[in-house]
Amino acid sequence: MTDNAAADSPTPDPQPTTHRRRPRYSGKNPRRFEDKYKELDPARHAETIAKVLASGKTPAGTHRSIMVAEVLQTLSPKPGEVAVDCTLGYGGHARELLGRVLPGGRLIGLDTDPIELPKTEQRLREAGFGPDVFTAVRSNFAGLPQVLTGAGLSGADCILVDLGVSSMQIDDPTRGFSIKGDGPLDMRMNPQRGFPASVLLQKITPDDLAELLVENADEPYADELSEKLAGRAFSTTNQLANAIRAAAPDPDRDTVVLTIRRVFQALRIAVNDEFPAIDMFLRNLPYCLNPGARIAILTFHSGEDLRVKKAFQAGLRDGHYAEIARDVIRATPQERNQNPRSSSAKLRWAKKSS
Description:
Layout: H1 3-8, H2 46-54, H3 68-75, E1 82-85, H4 92-101, E2 106-111, H5 117-126, E3 134-138, H6 144-150, E4 156-162, H7 167-171, H8 197-203, H9 206-217, H10 222-229, H11 237-247, H12 253-271, H13 274-284, E5 289-299, H14 302-317, E6 321-324, H15 333-338, E7 346-352
Parallel strand pairs: 1-2, 1-4, 2-3, 4-5
Antiparallel strand pairs: 5-7, 6-7
Helix pairs in contact: 9-10, 9-12, 10-11, 13-14
């Protein structure tokens, strides 16, 4: 074809583009996580967020920090101090601590979750906390000594550890932490390390699973459940939940729901090696605190709380701590009503000797 012929050829009409409307928001509170686009975009839908909070629920993709006032009273952060939030999560506690150690202070935030950590760092940067006052580090809290050394610090003045799972992780079905929505049976805080809960169940023996259910969740039906669950292949959270329902000796609906929660809790603790990490952290903790420093730890079940209680008692006897909490601090009735996830929280504290 000649150049002139090519020039004379008609140009095909562009294909019309079809406009696809976003699906209509399904009711006041859509059930599926991925349908809650208003809650997942709080900057544009503040009214929806306010309504969800007023109903006592946590907006999808967010987290409501627990016992903030009690944590601040316990840690008593002051301008110029070094604070560490060992479980940064959504950044609610960190933001409050930063507002009190400034001017002159700084905060280091640790989190092992590679999905949520960058989001939280961006939120805190947008709130005005630059690299000079806030440092985000991807690390498990057990790595605190190495983190402090890397930051050129010999210790911190106040340290917070919140051992609960963040709502962002629980509510997102792709993380596999709960049965709120069907998703892959994963449960890893860091999906880039270790193996998911589905692999653990497929490889474990009934005896080992029974021991795990008792140690990690005080499950009363551990023996009966382990015989039906160990060595089986479950790829999704709903598959496992249905198998637990079928295996549960007590058919009462509320009892079965509690059983499912305990099994999921036990598997999550095992998959993430949570108890060994807590034990290592508590052993190293006294050497990460400056003289007179304060430590506050939020726990959510007996396995965590007992470890913290015994470590603080041993530290007091050995002279590492000048003072420790004699009793746990609980969320107020008002907070428990507004945020039911705070109901099981226990706060313990200790003060480093001078």
